[in-house]
Amino acid sequence: MTHSDAQGKAAMTTALDFTPAPGAAPFPRMVAAQTGAEIRAMLRNGEQLLLTLIIPVLLLVGFSLAPIIDIGGGSRVDFLVPGVLALAVMSTAFTGQAIATGFERRYGVLKRLGATPLSRPGLMLAKTAAVVSVELIQVVLIIGVGLALGWRPQGSFLGAALLIVAGTAAFSGLGLLMAGVLRAEATLAAANLVYLLLLGAGGVLFPLSKFPSGVRGALELLPISALTGGLRSVLAQGAALPLAPLAVLLGWAVLSLGLASRTFRWE
């Protein structure tokens, strides 16, 4: 064998080196992969679709066409669309996510994820990104139905989008906090109970002005009330970005996500 043949054989051996090179994927790639898995799981779940898409649309259509609520003047659909948008955010980011995550922990899915390089902040980020993706579908659907019912938005969609992002972070943190510390059955019951309570007392279908003045101030500090009121002031009244509701939502987001990241259990 000549010297040049030996060099060529050595180069080929180097090029075909199949030595394993174990190591974790980059953090953004891990989060993106988990986000895709979360989105597929949400869209394949019939109960999730009922909660996130069908119920909000039915409430919007039913309460817009039937004179069930007294909003004190003005168009019912103009009043309802912002509230239903807020309800959709809560349905996906809080109720659906809390229940799904709680049962993932019960069935050992989170335990298996905990054995991977994906960290707790990475899992929370992936779940939040999946929620935002599903919310985009919800927003398009609800806006389309609202326009068909005669809704005419008055304000800035950018301001509304900022409120939705802040509301998503707040509700996502609350959902992960609940799913991370309670048993799956308790999460299921608590998430549905909170959903019903906030639906009735968060200004979604009934104006907060209908409640006694003594409790109205406390209700306005709820994340659903802040999101509903903020969206209503922007989309129905054409106001600039309301800072008070935004501050309430950001406060809930920081508090809930901070607590969730510290208390979340994989099993």
Keywords:
globular; mainly alpha
Can you give a write-up of this model?
- The structure is a single chain.
- This protein is mainly alpha-helical.
- The chain has one domain.
- The protein contains eleven helices and no strands.
- It is globular and about 70 Å long.
- It starts with a helix and ends with a helix.
List the helices and strands and how they pair.
Blueprint: H1 3-15, H2 27-44, H3 46-65, H4 76-106, H5 109-114, H6 120-148, H7 157-181, H8 184-201, H9 213-219, H10 223-235, H11 243-263
Helix pairs in contact: 2-6, 3-4, 3-6, 4-6, 4-7, 4-8, 4-10, 6-7, 7-10, 7-11, 10-11
Taken in chain order, the helices and strands follow as HHHHHHHHHHH
Total domain units = 1
Strand content: under 5%
Classify the oligomer. single chain
Shape: globular
SS elements, strand count: 0
On the 0-100 scale, what is the average pLDDT? 84
**Uncertain regions spanning at least 5 consecutive residues:** none
Radius of gyration: 23 Å
CA-CA gap between termini = 62 Å
**Classification by helices and strands:** mainly alpha
Number of helices: 11
Characterize the main sheet: none
Summarize the amount of helix as a percent range.
over 70%
